[in-house]
Design a protein that fits this description.
This protein is an all-alpha fold and 190 residues long. The protein has five helices and no strands. Helix 4 packs antiparallel against helix 5. The N and C termini lie far apart (142 Å).
Length: 190
C-alpha cells in the first residue's frame, strides 16, 4: 500500500471514530448573547476550529469547574445521579440508533468527585504547611530579638557590674588619697 493509500485509510478510520463519538453525544439547543457568539466565532476562526466543537469543549470545562465548586457532600450525591443518568441517556441513544449498547463518553462524575476530594486534601495540606512555615518564620523572628535583648541585658549587667567595681575602686582610691596627702603633708611639715 502506498503512502497516499495509507493516508486515505487513516482518514476513513478517523471518520469512523468521529461518527462513533458523535453518536454518543446528546443534542442541546442553546441561545447565547451576541457578545458570547462573537467570541465563539472569533476564537473558532483564529484556531480553525468548528464552533460546535469549541462550544462543546468550553462547556465541558465549565461543567468541571462548576462541579468542583459544589459542596463535597452534595457533589458526591450529584455525581452518582449524573453517572446513572449518563448510562440511561446512552441506552436511549443506542436504542434510537438500533445498537445493542453504547459506551458513555465524557466525564465519569464519581471519579471526578474522587479527584476533587484528592485535590482538596492536597490544597488543605499545602495550606497547613504554608501556615506552619509562616509560624516558624514568625517565631524565628521573635526569638532573634529576644536573644538580642538577652545578650544586651547581659552586656548591660556586665557593664553595670564593671561600673560598680570601678566606682568602688575610685571611692577606695579617693579615701586612700586624702590620707596619703595628709600623711605626706604632715611628713613634710614634721
Amino acid at each position: 500500500m502506498s503512502k497516499a493509500q495509507s493516508l486515505i485509510e487513516q482518514f476513513y478510520q478517523e471518520e469512523q471514530q468521529r461518527m462513533a463519538e458523535e453518536a454518543t453525544y446528546s443534542p442541546l439547543e442553546i441561545s447565547t448573547s451576541s457578545a458570547d457568539m462573537a467570541i465563539i466565532n472569533t476564537i473558532s476562526k483564529r484556531f480553525s476550529k468548528d464552533k460546535t466543537l469549541l462550544v462543546r469543549e468550553a462547556l465541558s470545562q465549565a461543567l468541571l469547574d462548576m462541579f468542583s465548586a459544589l459542596d463535597p457532600v452534595e457533589r458526591k450525591m450529584l455525581a452518582k445521579d449524573a453517572d446513572e443518568l449518563a448510562q440511561s441517556i446512552a441506552a436511549e441513544i443506542a436504542e434510537e440508533q438500533g445498537l445493542d449498547s453504547l459506551e458513555v463518553t465524557g466525564n465519569n462524575w464519581v471519579q471526578q468527585d474522587k479527584l476533587c476530594i484528592k485535590a482538596e486534601k492536597k490544597a488543605a495540606k499545602e495550606e497547613a504547611d504554608r501556615q506552619a512555615q509562616m509560624a516558624d518564620k514568625v517565631l524565628g523572628q521573635e526569638e532573634a530579638p529576644m536573644a538580642e535583648a538577652t545578650e544586651a541585658e547581659e552586656v548591660d549587667s556586665y557593664t553595670d557590674e564593671d561600673s560598680e567595681t570601678e566606682l568602688l575602686a575610685e571611692e577606695e582610691t579617693a579615701q586612700v588619697e586624702p590620707a596619703t596627702e595628709e600623711q605626706s603633708t604632715s611628713s613634710i611639715f614634721s
